[in-house]
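Quick one: Diacylglycerol kinase from Parahaliea maris, C-alpha cells please.
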Amino acid sequence: MNKPGKRGLTRLLAATRHSRDGLVSAWRSEEAFRTEAVLALAFLPLAFAVGDGLAHQLVLVVCCALVILAEILNTAIESVVDRIGPEHDPLSGQAKDLGSAAVLVSLLLFALAWGLSLWQWWQG
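--- reply ---
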C-alpha cells in the first residue's frame, strides 16, 4: 500500500527545495565544497574553449560535476556519522575515510582529464 503524501508536481517541487537546501548547507558548512564549486564555475566555460568537440567538452564538464558530487556525498556521510555520536568508532572512521577517498579519486580524475586536455590545447 502506498503511503499518503506529496505526489506529482508537488512532490517534485518539494524534492527540488530539499536539493536546494542541501546545496546551501554544503556551501555554508564546507570550505572544500565552496573551493571546488568556485573552481568548477571557472573551469566550466573553459571546457568549451579547451575541449576538442562535444564529447571532449562533455568529459571535462562531467569531471567538474563528479568532484562536486563526491564532495556532497562525503559531507552527507560525515553528517550521518557525526549524528551517531562523537566517540571514535572504527566503522565510523572507515566511513569517513571512504567518503574522503571518493573525493580524492574524483579530484585525480579531474586533474588527469584537465591536465591532458590543457597540455594538448597548449601544444596547439
